[in-house]
Amino acid sequence: MWSWQRSWLGGTLFASLMFLSSFLGAIFILTPMLPLMLIRPKWYRAVVDQLIGWWETFPVALLELVYGVRVRITGDKIPQGERTLIIMNHRSRLDWMFLWSCLLRRGQLSKEKIILKTSLKNIPGPGWAMQVGCFLFIKRRWDEDEKIIKRMLNYLISIRHETQLLLFPEGTDLTEYTRKRSNDYAKEYNLPKYNYVLHPRTTGFVYIVEKLRKAKQLDSIHDITVGYPAGVLQNEMDLFAGRFPREVHFHIRRHPLQTLPNTRGQLELWCTTRWAEKELQLKEFYQRKRFKDLNLVDGRKSGNHFRKEQVKAILWLSIFFWGNFVVVMLYLMANHFFLLKMTSIIAVFYIVEGLLFGGVEDMEIKLHNAIWGKLPWK
Question: Would you tell me how many other CB atoms lie within 10 Å of the CB of residue 49?
């Protein structure tokens, strides 16, 4: 049934649609919204967050409706509108894309901010959209990353953004190479060896929790475990080859703020304990091909924001909108030199502003500081 979808043809088509929709969306949908940051940052953030969230439904729609990827969500039900830190194991380089299926069903897709490596911000199209989305781009050197995270969190706190911040404490995806490095580290420090997760790095986790808690901008931590019982899309090459997983399972555990420990050392232990639990949980998962908890979150009576029928309608509408958007914009650009010229000018703008400001997200913060004064949180 899924022959061409799970081939180089299907994978290349998916990647092409993702690139074209994000590139054209950044140029013709997001860029016209940039002047709003001069008027009211909170309004600007609300508008572009909704637009980016709408685009993020497109890969979800293609994966589920066209490529046949089944998503199963178990565990705790998440109250709508929570300000939270999402922590998740990093099984593949594209876990964040599959997580959008989970966030969509909770009605929280537009609030998500992902912590990513800084090289991704310069990719034409997707990188520009992530800059506009105020994603956090880190360099994996804490002396620099602390300043980046502090600046971004200060800004989001100052405009009272209901952030859902996604952090992969492991720092990288699980491969044979990274597993060996993690277990070498475990041997050196007399820690247990893991097969299904990597030992987490707790410095950034602790800093973010303490920062958000102090600012009263954290309601809970959502601890999500992802498992792939029938194939895993490990990296971009697998994506192009069409090696899409047949199923993706998410298990959610919600930890309210009041249940979290108060000291730095206790928070570090709390995080490492969660990862020890994930190792055991995933070991059982890959034996059973599902998580033990049978409390399905993605159900008609789950109490979530969207029901199954609503989700399916949103996904089909997304395919209709973005599919037509790509076709129409390519046609107009091919037949109207003005649009092609505008595209080139905007592309140059993103390159120049990256050199001058470091990215649209940095420009947003600098303009906010210059117009509305110093941030209230230090």
Answer: 21
